[in-house]
Amino acid sequence: MASILSVALTIIVQAAMISALYALIAIGFTLIFGVGGVLNLAHGATITMGAFSAYYAGQFGLGIPGAVLASVTIPALFAGLLYLGMVKRLEEEPIMVMITTLVVSVVIEQAIVVFEGTTSRSLPRLIEGQFHIAGSTFQNLLGVMFVVSWIIIGLLFLFVNYTKTGKGILAVSMSHKGASLVGIKSSRINLITWIIAGAFAGIAGLFLGSWLTADFAMGQAQLVLSFSIVVVGGIGSIRGSVIGAYLIGFLEIATTNLISSSLQGLAPLVVLVVVLLVKPEGLFGREFAE
Q: Could you list the residue ranges that cross the membrane (predicted)?
């Protein structure tokens, strides 16, 4: 009985920490769709960019502060430039945006292969040590990842619901025409949204790279994960992304611990198929924020 309880607590704690990062990854993806109505297929590559920005900062001896700063600013700037340089011109053609961002994603991955090859790279360790809960041992990094992810998610909710710019994001997500009638510039709001999503992706890349390793293809699995989460939660819904992340995260960790680690990537796809069959609009439909 004690052993079963210990395993259950281990799964709950591990899933809670990892799902917080999954939520952070998915929110950036759903923000862009919620506001601009387009899917950013370069989201996974932006996560990879965040990881390698931190890696190069470490190579240049900038330490942990430099790695954190690089992992946030470089992906955020990239996302902003991607919007201004390409996406803004194609906003009325969602399919073209998908194709364009997919091509950009492939270019980034191939550029990393050219400069770094296919070998995984180790990032600066954000924090060392371990902590113990219910007889199980966890990395301190996972605890920091959980806390930081939830702080960022909380700040985003406050920003969206209680600031002028945040309310502008809400207005544009509901109606571009309605927002323009009250003087809100959709292009400016879209740019801000892309920059925020890029920064979130960069932070996720930093944590993933520090926890595991960084390689050119690391963003591919995260793009599939993001898509699965936002479809489950309801494309465009921040709350749905958080709940979808925890649903998939808990199922994934339970599957890995109780059945086989080889089934880790299968859990999101199974949930995705079930939701598409039972409730295609997702748990929270097309709403953006509450």
A: 62-83, 95-115, 141-160, 191-212, 224-251, 258-278
